[in-house]
Each structure stands twice: as C-alpha cells, then as structure tokens.
Amino acid sequence: MVDIAKGGEHARVSRGRPRSEAVEQAIIEGVVRLLEEGVPLTELSIERIARTAGVGKATIYRRWDGKEALFVDVLRVFEEPDPELPGASMRDDLVCLLEGLRRRGLTMRSSALLHNVFAQMKALPKLWSAYHATVVEPRRRATCEVLRRGVADGELRGDVDIEMANDLLVGPMLVRTVMRPDAPLEDELAARIVDTVLEGLRPPS
After folding, report:
1. CB 177 within 8 A of CB 185
2. Is the dihedral of CA 8, 10, 11, 17 positive or negative?
3. Are residues 78 and 7 in contact, defined by beta-carbon separation less than 8 angstroms?
C-alpha cells in the first residue's frame, strides 16, 4: 500500500488523532486503497468508498460535497506541499516555484499509480475543472504575484506581460514533465529556466 504522506511526514491514522481528522484520513486512505487495487476513478462511488473506509455515506458528504472534491484532496496527498518562498528576490522565488514543479514531475515519473490517476482524470471534466480551480490556479496566481512584485521592485521591465511571462517560465518545465517524459529533470533545471527567461525580461542596465 502507498504510504500517505504530506510534506515528508506520514499522515496515517494514529491513536490520539482528533476524531474528525482520523475519519477524513480513513476515507482518503480508502480511496487510495481502491485505486491501488485497480479500480478506475469512474467506478469509485461514494457508497463503495464509504464501505472501504468503514464509514457511512453521510459521513463523507458532511466533509465533501461530491466525489470531485474528495478526489482533489486525494490527489493532494501524492503531491509535494507548495513551497514556502524565500522572499529574498524575485529570481529566488521563481526558482523555488519552478523547483516545486520539477519535483512534482519526478514524483509523476516514479509513481505508476499517480500517472494512471492523472491520465484518467482528464476524462472526467468536473474533476479536471475542480483540480485546476483548487490546485493549478492558486499556483499560477502565486507565480504572477511574484512577477508583479518584480515589476514593482524594478527587477522586471514595466511593460512585461505578466501572464505571458508566467507561461514563458512554466512552459518549459511542463513540456519536460508532461510532453517529454524521457527528458532529463536535472537539479539545476529550475534555475536555468528562470535565468534564461529573465535575461530577456529585465530592464536595461
């Protein structure tokens, strides 16, 4: 069984854990167990999840308004927590954000289960939309905020298109992690991408 971890610490149910947190963890573990057994996402009903987790359906609905919301929380279990930005400079924060994407790519490559789940998720529009709204978009906003701060601090030209700059930074990493699974994800990749893009976006010296 896959160890459920967040931020490097195992998140399994243990004695002394508050009741509500323990129940939620049992439900998430139940979903992961079913996925490990090869049950497709489309066949994961609330009733089946409840039976596996040893809870009632009402217990699940009190915590999530549907399967999509529950599945998004399950997917979060497999991902690295969002990085804490150092805040020393725009460049360092951007490297930190892209490093998070690089590490996520490495996790995807090493986990056949996670790769399979994401492949299935694209066939479920409501889940894909919920994942984007709660996971992808907040990360995009964080990158854009760092870029806006860079403009305000004079680290970027004032005429820079923030949305396009975000795409220029994130795009190369996504190409390597999603479209080119054979491409290397070396340790210095995030810094190389940031430095290459910023070379063309900084104000003239």
Report:
1. yes
2. negative
3. no
Give the other-Cβ count within 10 Å of 186's Cβ.
Answer: 10
CB 117 within 8 A of CB 41: yes
Distance separating alpha carbons of residues 85 and 1, to the nearest angstrom: 33
6: phi then psi, degrees, rounded to nearest 5 = -135, 125
Q: Residue 147's closest CA among 132, 159, 130, 165? A: 165
* CA nearest neighbour of 39 among 52, 27, 26: 52
Amino acid making up residue 133:
A
- pTM higher than 0.90: no
The residue among 112, 85, 117, 116 whose CA lies nearest residue 98 is 85
What is the maximum alpha-carbon separation in the chain? 64
End-to-end CA distance of the chain: 55
CA nearest to 170, candidates 89, 101, 105 = 101
Residue 121 contacts by C-beta under 8 Å, 6 or more apart in sequence?
41, 71, 75, 127, 128, 131
| pLDDT tens readout for residues 95-150 | 999 999 999 889 888 887 888 888 888 888 888 998 899 889 999 999 999 999 99
Residue where the block lists tokens 């994961």: 44
